[in-house]
Amino acid sequence: MKTFADQQHTFPSPQAAADAVAMHIINTLKTKPHAVLGLATGATMEPVYAYIVAAFKRGEVSFAGVTTFNLDEYAGLAPSDPGSYRSTMDRLLFDHVDIDKNRTFLPEASATAWEAAAERYEAMIVEAGGIDLQLLGIGRNGHIGFNEPGSLIDSRTRLVELHADTLAANARFFADGQVPKSAITMGIGTILSAREIVVLATGAAKAEAVNRAHSGAFSIDCPASALQTHGNVLWFLDTDAANARAAA
Ligand code: F6R
Question: What is the mean pLDDT of each run of 10 residues along the chain (248 residues)?
């Protein structure tokens, strides 16, 4: 397995780190135009999608053959709700590139039979051939997707309750500050099934989580530490997110 140093790329600014992630995705699509991408939302990803949209407009990349599966979606939000991750993905990426929206998938937020919907999502990923490249952010508490501390390393897509820290962090995305308290998320096991994982973490608020993700073995208290078991993970950091690790 690669060591942490082999997998880490550190950049002088959040923008530079995001640009590098976007270029990595674009290069993947150049070599594999029918790639299956696992996508993430969150503020960290916004400059990644902005770079990709600009590259598409310059004719440098096509999404015509691409299939996407997002990590997570808030439970109970209509797809048209501006706070939903479906709306967010449309606004940031899907509405601006040549992707077939019928091949853009998010967990079913309006499902009433959660377990069946979660099983369907897992089956759809398998039917698509599995995820080639999974894009990941990291929560301040070490969550990946919405796998909060306490999540099992072999967990699969399921309904989860969001932690208070996550609700506080994400209130800024909702006009009334009211974040749905539950979500449907790919599990840690689902994420680890991807052939390649690309993590982007920027800002000092992520430094501790990045450091804990690499300290010791897998700890249930830090879901991102499960990534140590994968073997094909690239970490893209800015100097602030990498700082605690450099000092450790
Ligand atoms: C989003 C997701 C989350 C975020 C994480 C970081 O789809 O799965 O794990 O990646 O909460 O969010 P930001 O980038 O807003 O700090």
Answer: 67 98 98 98 98 98 98 93 96 98 93 89 98 98 97 97 92 90 97 98 97 91 96 96 70
Binding-site residues, ligand 1, Cβ < 6 A: 40-44, 71-72, 137, 139, 143-146
Using alpha carbons only, how large is the chain's radius of gyration in Å? 17
Ligand 1 center from residue 180 Cα (angstroms): 15
100 is catalytic: no
CA–centroid distance, 122 to ligand 1, in Å, is 20
Report the predicted TM-score, pTM, of the whole model to 2 decimal places: 0.95
Residue extents of the structural domains in the chain: 4-247
DSSP string over 220-236: TTBGGGGGGGTS-EEEE
Q: Is 96 an active-site residue?
A: no
| Distance in angstroms (rounded) separating the CA atoms of residues 178 and 35 | 36
> What pLDDT score does 177 carry?
87
Q: Are strands 67-70 and 104-105 parallel, antiparallel or unpaired?
A: parallel
| 167 CA distance to ligand 1 middle (Å) | 11
Q: CATH assignment of 4-247, given 2.40.400.10, 3.90.79.10, 3.40.50.1360, 3.40.50.150?
A: 3.40.50.1360
Q: Which atom of ligand 1 is nearest to the CA of 85?
A: 7
